[in-house]
Model the fold of this input.
Amino acid sequence: MVRLFFVSITVVACLILMNGTGLSQGVRLEKNITLSMANEAASAAVEMCLTKGWLVSAAVVDRSGVLKALQRADGAGFHTVDAARRKAYTSASMRTSTSGILENIRNNPASTNLGQIDGFLILGGGVPIRAGDEVIGAIGVGGAPGGHLDDQCAEAAIGKIKDRLK
Done:
């Protein structure tokens, strides 16, 4: 009887150790960008571009591509709002930069139709935001005179928050 009790205790302990509480099967924990960090990144991107004289919009989406923060510089074209959001969405969805996707399309004709996916915009300026190896969101910048310049502003924004991306 005592032996059965100890075996039962051991089995329960193993279940708890394997599953946390033993009741968490099927639950996945994921990191995601916070509202305050998303606002900070969007602001940093717009400010960086302003120092170069570029009037842009910056959008930050969460890991699922849902808009979290959006800022538009005074005088930025109204088309830049949707461009920034779609670049961020594309980057979050593909878990890579939109410039990288564009390069892949240039080198791999089989991927040409990626641009036909609803909501995608494959122009430079969309960059994933990572905490370690995990994509927790993405930033999209639109309005600089070239996608590579939008990339610079997005990268600078990520640089402003990188010390807290853990």
